[in-house]
Amino acid sequence: MSDDNREDPNAWAPATRLIRGGMARSNYGEISEPIFLTQSFAYDSAEAADRRFSGEEPGFIYARYGNPTVKMFEDRLALLEGAQACRAAASGMAAIHTALVGLLKAGDHLVASRALFGSCRWIIGQLLPRFGVETTFVDGTDLDAWRAAMRPNTRVCFLESPANPLLEIVDVAAVAQIAHAGGARLVVDNAFASPILQKPLTLGADIVIYSATKHIDGQGRVLGGAILGDEALLEESYKDLIRHTGPALSPFSAWVLLKGMETLELRVMRQSETAARLADLAAGHANVRKVLYPGRADHPQHALAMRQMSAGGTILAFDLGARGAAFRFLNALQIVDISNNLADAKSMAVHPSTTTHRSTPEPERLAIGLTEGFVRLSAGLEAYEDLARDVTRALDEAGRDG
């Protein structure tokens, strides 16, 4: 079949994009994507190498700059996201760091929602100021606070939605308008929602970031990250930065992520259904003071979440009142693992105040409502009946005297 007669991948449904997007077969005609485990590439001649390095001739140069397996991952994720381009990174935090550093310089100002993963908060609050970038943290749900924080030198607005760990929802479209009106770009960490449930670019974001370690792998195997947006913006902001600082994704990890994407939609939808049922179960238990799940009507931003997302997501959080109760709950679990990872095929629960958000000062944790009674639970693919029995037993135990 000639290329002229091939279907346009942009016309494919998400399920088809996840399986066939970006596929580049070698001359062997393999069905599973090939892994190109090579650091460098050979050229037919010195002249060919000259043309390759000058950009006159397409092709790969060095694994730090690009690799055929990594390129398949980038192309598939871009197709799914509806982005012009994707740049892969070795981890989600490598993607966050690269995305922000590529857009900022000394003297610039950043506005960020205060509800962030601990490592994101450290980069923005501790690392960037060392290089002359000032940050203002705001209540992400308060649009007036975003407007008031904007300055003439504001270059980036950054947010997570849903946010880690208490599932705060930020109005992405409204913040995008505020950022653009002030001459800034909006960067969204979409790891909790996944590209299945939310598309920030369609809501006005300029850059979308993923920890591919989470839903995209979703089976506890490798680290990975991705930055997506318009080709011109990614080329201008990240080409030289990636080439010279080397946050490269390994070809093997890219291959694992490609395999993970084949089942991404199935996993996310099933896990979202389970999370919604577990949220209802927890809400009905006497030892639970509060449940936070975007799909429930009692979530503070439920209506907004349902406008931006196609389901409530795979994560929930609930308050057991005190650290002792939270620890008793976690220690009583027999199926659900205690782990700081999330969006895995295995269900996992964690105490954020002493793990993922341990480095966040207590006043800042309390400002986002993160008290020591909160547990974050990531729903996996186990049978709901088994998870419900395990969670109920652990919730019963949480109420016993310490």
What's the structural blueprint in terms of helices and strands?
Layout: H1 14-20, H2 46-54, H3 68-81, E1 85-89, H4 92-101, E2 109-113, H5 118-127, E3 134-138, H6 143-149, E4 154-160, H7 172-181, E5 185-189, H8 194-197, E6 207-211, H9 213-217, E7 225-229, H10 231-245, H11 251-261, H12 264-283, E8 290-292, H13 302-308, E9 315-319, H14 323-332, E10 337-338, E11 348-350, H15 362-367, E12 374-378, H16 384-398
Parallel strand pairs: 2-3, 2-4, 4-5, 5-6, 10-11
Antiparallel strand pairs: 1-7, 6-7, 8-9, 9-12, 11-12
Helix pairs in contact: 1-3, 3-11, 12-16, 14-16
Tell me what you see in this structure.
With 402 residues, the protein is α/β, with parallel strands linked by helices. It folds into 2 domains: 3-261, Type I PLP-dependent aspartate aminotransferase-like (Major domain) (Aspartate Aminotransferase, domain 2); 265-398, Aspartate Aminotransferase, domain 1. Helix content is 40%, strand content 14%. The strands form 2 sheets. The chain has a 7-stranded mixed beta sheet, with helices on both faces. Strands 8-9-12-11-10 form a 5-stranded mixed beta sheet. Helix 3 packs parallel to helix 11 (251-261). The longest helix is centred in the last third of the chain and has 20 residues, at 264-283. The model has no long low-confidence stretch (mean pLDDT 96).
